[in-house]
Amino acid sequence: MKKKVTLLFAVLLALVIMAGCSMKELISVNITKDGKASMEVVMAYGDETIDQLMAMSASGESKTFTDEERWAYLESGSTDQTYDEKFTTERYEEEGYKGFKLVAKDLSISDLVYESGDSEVNANNIASEGKLFTKNGNEYTMEFTGSDSDSSSTITSGSGDEIVMKISITLPAPAKSNNATEVSEDKLTYTWDLLKAESAKLVFELDEVKEEKAAETKSGETKATEAKTEETEGTSIASTSISWTKASNWALDELKKANEKGVIPSIFDKNDLTKDITRREFAHIAVKLYDVINGYGVRAAVVPQNPFTDTDDIEVLWAYDLGITNGVTATTFEPDGLITREQMATMLTRAITKSNIDTKVGLEKVEKFADDADLHDWSREAVYFMSNSEIIKGIGEGNFGAKNNSTIEQALIIALRSVEKLAK
């Protein structure tokens, strides 16, 4: 759910090119070593600028308005712009400026992370999306342009002009790289003047804190799954035999082979494998593939922190922690939602990539599926890697079927083929 923002976003660019305008757009983020975060977004205008806008909107002569009239004008200027629900809004008034401040205090670093390929970050959509970074393992990257427009080149230094557009990020440790226009003496706070810098880039690492013991779970099944993720003396999950209540005849031989190789997660024991697979179930398969390729015991024994409110499934948390999957929002995973074929290809490719296996393909060289246009940009390379590796086949007539769902047995067989072709 998104909320309306009571700011005059629609006049933002107009203000930039007005003679004698005053405007502030300030974004500040603080990240602590335990992965907690807070964010403030300030958008405010000088009193004289507000007076000019009020006169323009009333088609009247310039005049000086009272503070009460200015606030009434600002608060009546709500547009269709939205901001992320984790923000609260409050008035901002300082040194002849009036506007609004959006504040989000109880955040985690995961709240600020985009799923790769989902959206392009720029200074004007931070408040609406509440996102800043992309994540690769423990490395976080912020990279965006200051504005979608060429507004910075239109700013003059005429009398009365005061335009400030800045973003500041405070980290618990120095960044790996940055192009900040200002860095604090302790090298923890990085500031970009978006009117001077064409882009903002920051790369840093954050070792997320792991809980020393597992959080309480909702079911005995989840606890059992957690227990089986740890190696025991002389025995590993790979030796666990799974049985099923129903499977297609065409799939039986490969399912038996998958069982022998330990590819089938325990969540599917005594299950109907002809059913469509859910996001939660497929997370189990992706993590199991990671284990089989890399060897059991690679993952730590402790349970990753949980950013989700709708699941505490251990394997889902591991899939998220390993960078194999993302939530549908910052706080929800939608565990019972069905997975599509392009999502399945993407998650398995991520599991394989995390295993230090090269999954790059030359998209300009591959033979495209007839329904290539149905693929999202974030899935295309993964789909063609899986296809070229003969792990995931098309659905006939040259099509891939990106939006089609998959059955449990189909997903397990794809995982088996991944192991057979790529396991070390």
In percent terms, what proportion of residues is strand?
15-25%
Mean pLDDT: 76
Number of strands: 16
Helices and strands, in order, run as: EHEEHHEEEEHEEEEEEEHEHEHHHHH
The secondary structure category is alpha+beta
- How many independent structural domains? 2
Radius of gyration: 26 Å
Described by the principal axes of the CA atoms, the overall outline is: elongated
Query: Taking strands numbered 1, 2, ... along the chain, how are they ordered across the largest sheet?
Result: 5-6-3-2-10-13-12
**Helix count?**
11
Poorly predicted sequence stretches spanning 5 or more consecutive residues: 1-19, 78-83, 147-159, 209-239
Q: Helical percent range?
A: 25-40%
Describe the main β-sheet briefly: 7 strands, mixed
Q: Distance N terminus to C terminus? A: 45 Å
Please outline what is shown here:
The protein has 424 residues and is an alpha+beta fold.
